[in-house]
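User: Continuing from earlier, I have the next pair ready.

Assistant: Great, send them over.

User: Here they are, in order.

Assistant: Folding the first of the pair now:
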Amino acid sequence: MKAIVMAGGLGSRLGMGEKPCVEVLGKPLISYVLETLQETESIDEIFVAVSPATPDTASYVEKEYAGEIPVIHTGGGNYVGDMVYAVKVAGITEPLMVLMADLPLLNPDLLEKVIGEYKECGKPAMSIFSPIHVCKGLGIRPDTVFNWDGKLIVPSGINILDGNDVENEQEYISLVLDDMEFALNINTPEDLKRCKDMLLEKGQPSVTNQ
């Protein structure tokens, strides 16, 4: 399966410049996501979609992952339009994973679990959600909340869809997972601090201390 990391957003709520380049424990947020994808066996090719708002992100990926991860320059008009453009440029005509660049707690086992569920779901698309109680437990105030069979759920920023039909709305299934790693994306300085604390709890070393 291919993967596209969407890294073209302004990150205005965080207020620290280009969000994918914001460092946690000495490593840019986007590197956590890219390294997790590289370690996920079911992912065989990775692309990063940037926009005019994220030139430093483009430069960073092109330098640090030269020859490994292609960078696709989108127009930055809107998320869906940029995603469709990136899929077309990448030439992906099969199921692919699309995810945000600000999910540093993800790990290969979790992504394999998502991919496994997708293969069994029988639908062309799948969206990953977190229950609202997981977000509240982390102290997160989500911007978007959906009612799913009477339960409040929050989009994680991870989707799988059919690249061959990317320009059309696809029938999808909602996969709701309790794993906190899907719930913590970085939107505010408080989220960033929480992320740092959780990475330290997991034994993540600081790059600056190595």
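And the other member of the pair:
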Amino acid sequence: MTTFASLEGKVALVTGGSRGIGRAIALELGRAGADVIVGYRTGREEAEAVATEVGGRAVEADVSDPGSARTLVESAGELDVLVNNAGLTRDGLLVRMSDEDWRSVIDTNLSSVFYTCRAAARGMMRKRAGAIVNISSIVGVHGNWGQTNYAASKAGIIGFTKSLARELGSRNVRANVVAPGYVTTQLTDVLPDEAKETMLSATPLGRLGDPEDVAGSVRFLCSDEARFVTGVVLHVDGGLGM
């Protein structure tokens, strides 16, 4: 029986795959049949547990460093799928934001996408096949108070990916964006209850998302069922971004 959005025989690398959305994506791609490499910077035990569950392997790397990102991609082998999920927040008002808080967010969230895509693109172009999915955020589309650095990094991912889709399309390599709304992860657990209630009231589906909600969309975009989809920003946000 044919499985919808099967990734059988494909090699997939997921950065930031040890927890949260990245973990859910790695598990979903594994269920789809992919050979999954779980990239991580921290959380070795968690990453190795994910890799064990999907029958893949975990590789430590700091994707904000160009050399480390390149080594990670090379260690993955002949990639069919690249999912860039690694990210962090350093929230604060602009007037109080340090240079380090700006740089660390831009380097981890945005520069890492450039580094890994650059490392993976040549091999995918040679094969004339490949799917890249970069994880942005509703904050990159609409902005958010106290998150100028995070919003800039996530908006940058959108512009980067649209440009990449134009560059790689003639070689049958697709590049898309998934922009989650507010999803229950370690990043949102620290939000005050009042902020969560505000989000919920603005979300037509009336709940925060689960990491698995995002993972299913990523699986589709990585699969051959999405073979005519590129340069798209898919909002997975319960209607928040309407």
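Worth noting for the second one:
The CA atoms of residues 181 and 237 lie 4 Å apart. DSSP finds nine helices and seven strands in the chain.
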